[in-house]
User: What shape does this take?
Amino acid sequence: MPVVLDPDAAAVYRAFQEAGRPPYETLPPAEARDDYLRARFATNPEPPELARVAPLSIPAPHGAIPARIYVPKQPRLKDGLAPALVFFHGGGWVIGDLDSHDVVCRQLADAGALIVIAIDYRRAPDHKFPAATDDAIAATRWVAANARELGIDPARLSIGGDSAGGNLAAVVALAARDGDGPKLAGQVLIYPAVDFAMTHGSHSEPETSVLLTHAVVRWFRDHYLNGAADIHDWRASPARATTLIGLPPAYVLTAGADPLRDEGEEYAARLKQVGVPVTTKHYPGQFHGFFTMGKLLQQANVAVSEIGAWLKALG
Assistant: This one.
């Protein structure tokens, strides 16, 4: 599929190339994490002012899962409780953390007039699959169980995430449907990774190897999975689930210059085919990762606003 970057996206891509940063796949994971975290200062927009931002500690079998709660100034209260979005950050299950996605969580809380709870799940290769999945499911169950104490309306609880976080959100939705979690109001899948087979066309097109290159996708996969057998486990590849029937309404965002483009679009189409209400938005001239770059890419701020409006429409 021909891809032409938007002028601002092309300018950002050129700037990254000219900066001469080493590719993530050439770095130790700890160094890659630091590099990714530093980049946020150049790309994240100014955050909106919120009523409260505070750390949380979620109990889990292996110990505490760090988290962060974001409360907007004017949440959509019903009987004193607000809707909420449990958010899982991207970063290929290897990089990314609460700080890398702090600004976008503030933006979503403000745009959706809801509480956002960001989850700092365990990362690979220190903790391989299914550690991140286990944490995502456990954290969502805990938020639902403690919803009222957190000021959250349990009937208006949604999940979401970008990239690897979109993968985790899709997995949590499947697990919750099958009884390992609460009833969910919606799922926000921002250029999600849903099939580790990586056989879709966008995984081999030269035009999609932008920032998230084909090589770094494989680097993430090899750090996260234990071996080839994990590819077929729906907890790693939610597209491999036996059925997608009965999942909550979905908002699926894809980008043109993205190795994950085709699998995200196919997943949205399959959700529609089985009767799941789906809203799709495609950004043909943007690359994977643009969503957090609102300082440089106006389409990122448009995407946040539109997701906020969709979350409001859920109720």
About this structure: The chain has a mean pLDDT of 97. The chain has eight helices and eight strands.
